[in-house]
Amino acid sequence: SVSFSALVSHSIEDFVAAGAPRSAPRTTGAPPPSSGPGEFGDNGFHVFSFWKAEYVWIPHGTLLDGSPLMTTLRPHATEILHVKPVDPSRPQYVGSDLHFSCGFEVKTFEWSDKSVRVILKNDYKKCGSVYLFLPERVGIDRASVHVCGRPSRFETVARPSIGPDAHQGRVIRVGVEIVANGEEDDGEVSIKW
Fold first, then answer.
1. What is the pLDDT of residue 69?
2. DSSP state, 14?
């Protein structure tokens, strides 16, 4: 077993501002940087494993009380974890299997009460998936998904019960293929409900 607790402070600081890297523009009118209602980490943490492309929600207190985050690795194996505090009140970018930094691949991340739009960097051809957290209130069952301008689908990978009030949410996976052809919608993921 290997302890990953040392990764937490760096990863959370890099991604807490807007659900995307600090270098990514935010939508006008977005709320100030926050981890949601209450104190930092009150609602737990999103943990995305890059190499395994797996998501897990870690409850509040698990990482804040000094308890290490443990996983078993095979000999000579490595793992990269993207860890960020949950904000159950808004959509969040959880990560992807497109770039090991789990955020470097994002050009912009925008959201409103009725949509989420992720624009990925499209300089190179790549194929993979992005993972997004959506609060349950958004009505995801009737959402329309478009990837690179074409109708697409999503898969629910987790339905965590988040925070002390047990807010419901979903983590979804959306497949993406970037063709690097210079078209305006290449690398764009759009979800509307």
1. 66
2. H
